[in-house]
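User: I'm putting together notes for a lab meeting next week and I want to include a structural view of one of the chains we've been expressing. I don't have a solved structure, so I'd like a prediction I can at least talk through. The sequence is below, exactly as it appears in our construct file.
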Amino acid sequence: MADLEITVRYKSSLAKAGLIGVVACMPVWGILAPLFLFIGLFSAIISEFTRREILAHPLTYVGPWLGLLLLIALGVKAVLNLADNRIVVSKLGIEFPFFLANTYGLRRKFSWAAIHKARLHTAPDRSELVLYTTDGFPVYLNVACMAPNELEQLLVGLDVWATHCEKDPELELLQDELQKGSDQKLLPSYTSMWDDELSRRFSSTAYVPLEPGHHLQNGRLKILSQVSFGGLSAVYLCQKNEQELVVLKEAVVPGDGSGEIKSKALELFEREAHILMKLDHPKIMKVLDHFVDSERHYLLLEYHNGQDLKQFVRHNGPPSEEKVCSWALEIASILEYLHGQELPIIHRDLTPDNLVLGTDGAIAMIDFGAANEFVGKATGTLVGKQSFIAPEQFRGKATTQSDLYALGCTLHFLLTGAEPVPLSVSHPRKINPAVSPRMDALVASLTAMNVEDRVSSATQLKALIVPEAAVSIN
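Assistant: Thanks for the context. Below is the predicted structure for the 474-residue chain, given as C-alpha cells.
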C-alpha cells in the first residue's frame, strides 16, 4: 500500500502575527523593491553613462540591486514559511513547519529513531507536547494549537511508529480522552495507519521449521506433522513415547538478540509455562511441559481431537446466530476462569483457529499466547493474528479486556465468515444482514477501541448474551 501520511495543522498565534506583519510590509518588499530594481536595471541598460559607471565602480550599483533582490526573496520565503503550518507524520518520521523546527528551520525533519522521549507538560495557562530529540533541542507543541482529532492522529502516529520513544503516562490519558470524543468517521484512517504498521511488524522472518520425523528430547518426541507455522513460531502434532499424541508449540529467538533481552524473555516464558501447567479446566487444553532444545523453546500440550472453528466456518459457512451465542457463552466461561485466577491469565491469542469443536459439540481452547509474548519480548516484534489484536495489546499493554476484544473479533468471523478489519470496531451486520441488531451491538461493544467503552469482564459478557447470566455453563 502507499505510504500513509498524517497532516496536522498547527495554528500558532505567533506565526499568524508574523505572517500578518510580513504581509503588511508587502508594499515594501513586494511592490517598491521590485519597482526600484526594475527602474535601476532599465536605466543601466539604456544609459551608456550609467553602464560606464558600473564598470568603473561595480559596488556602487550592484550592491543595492543585490540588496533589493534579497529583500524580495526574504519576503516571499517568509510568507511561504509562515503560511505553511503543517506537521507531516509518516512511518519515515515527522516534519515540522519552519517556525517550529529546531534552530528555526535548519533542521525540520526527524526520523523516529531521533525522537527518544515524548511528554505532556501542563502549566496553568497551557499544555505542551514536548518531543525530545537526539540533537538536544526539544520541540514544543502547544496542544491548543491543534484540532483535537488531528492531535489524536499525531498521538496515534507516535504509538504506531515511534516504537523506541519513551512516553509519559499523561500522554495516554490525553489520548484516551481524545478518543472518547473522536468522530467514528476517522476510524478508517486510523485503521490504515495501524494496518500498515501491523503488516511491517508481522512480516515473516524466515527460519526452518522442524520436519516430520524429527526427534526431540533424545527421541521421546517425534514430529508427525506441521499444524501451522510462520514468523518465529510453529505448532506441530507429535507422538510422545511412540504412543500418545501431543501438540508442541515452538518459539525461536534469533541469534542476534541481546543476551539481556533473551534472558528476560526466557524468564517470562518459563514463568508463564509454570502458571499454565497449574490450570485445570475441562475445556482448556492442558500444558504438560516446557523445555529448551537446540536453543528453541517449547510448550508441550495435550492433544484435543476436533475441528477448529476457522475450519468449521470455511467448510460449512457461518453458523446460526443461536449457535454462535451458545459458543460465545462457552468461550466466555473459559475466559472467566482464566481471568479469575489469583494472577489473571491473559490468553493473548484468542482466535477461531485456537478454539476446537469436539465430537461432543463442546468448545475447547487449545493454545495460549505465552510463546507469542515470549518472542515479542525477545525480538521487538509481534507474532500473532493481526485481525484479532486489541489496540492496547498492539502497544504492548494487554489486559483481560484485550481477550474480550479478540472474542468480539472471533464472533464477527463466526457470524460473517470474514475476518474483521484490524484495529477497528466490528459490525458483522454490515456484512451479514441476518445478524440481529442486538448481536451487532454486542460485537461492537466487545471491539470498542477504548478499553473503557468495552465490555468489562467475561462475567458481564455472559449476562449480556443471556440476561439470566447463563450460570449453568461452566
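A couple of points you could mention at the meeting. The radius of gyration is 31 Å. The chain has two domains: 1-201, 215-465.

User: Perfect, that's what I needed.
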